[in-house]
Design a protein that fits this description.
Chain A has 112 residues and is mainly beta. Chain A contains no helices and eleven strands. In chain B, strand 6 and strand 7 form a beta hairpin. The radius of gyration of chain B is 13 Å and the shape is globular. The chains are: A mainly beta (112), B mainly beta (111).
Chain lengths: 112, 111
């Protein structure tokens, strides 16, 4: 049972480039979300999804897009990378509203 | 979601019980208390949660005061692998997806 898998683990982008961070879960969870974590800070919610075809904005959505075409996958797209998006990104999933979240191992992104 | 207050850091001797406090004086009646931890460079890991009764699982115990304004996470026999940042979070059980992570308590287990 792989749980929540994020790829890549590390990425360096140039300012203005676009890329997609992948997140997949094999637990048939309805809820998935993306967080970012900056040095010395807690996690902040970027976008989330409560099921296939449904997404919503979190606390810091600007500069990011998401889609949820399947239950398993929840990719995060950076449209035009900026240095302010240098961060560690975590994807999480959970079975339903009132259950614990399972997190991936993170993607460390550097924008130069 | 209610705001939480935790000490910035704590030390605990290996093999002893680690008691991590959390204040949540503005908690409302439908908000749960959740605890997660984050070991260096890894994703957060769920530990335990509760509403008003004390809870215990294979990882830890959660003690919530009667007025629900504070709680304590107890790791009964701390090991070096328990060194991590511990986050106390309060949130409603429905209608809100966000887990509001503060800066947490950095727990260091001393050999």
């Amino acid at each position: 049972n792989a749980g929540v898998t994020q790829t890549p683990k590390f990425q360096v982008l140039k300012t203005g480039q676009s890329m997609t961070l992948q997140c997949a879960q094999d637990m048939n969870h309805e809820y998935m979300s993306w967080y970012r974590q900056d040095p010395g800070m807690g996690l902040r919610l970027i976008h989330y999804s409560v099921g296939a075809g449904i997404t919503d904005q979190g606390e810091v959505p600007n500069g990011y897009n998401v889609s949820r075409s399947t239950t398993e996958d929840f990719p995060l797209r950076l449209l035009s990378a900026a240095p302010s998006q240098t961060s560690v990104y975590f994807c999480a999933s959970k079975r339903s509203m009132n259950t614990e979240a399972f997190f991936g191992q993170g993607t460390r992104l550097t924008v130069v | 979601d209610a705001k939480t207050t935790q000490p910035t850091s704590m030390d605990c001797a290996e093999g002893r019980a680690a008691n991590l406090p959390c204040n949540h004086s503005t908690i409302s009646g439908n908000e749960y208390v959740y605890w997660y931890r984050q070991i260096h460079s890894q994703g957060p890991q769920y530990i335990i949660h509760g509403l008003k009764n004390n809870e215990t699982n294979e990882m830890a115990s959660l003690i919530i005061t009667e007025d629900r304004k504070s709680s304590t996470l107890i790791l009964p026999h701390a090991t070096l692998r328990d060194t991590a940042v511990y986050y106390c979070i309060v949130r409603v059980s429905f209608g809100n997806e966000k887990l509001t992570f503060g800066t947490g308590t950095r727990l260091t287990i001393i050999p």
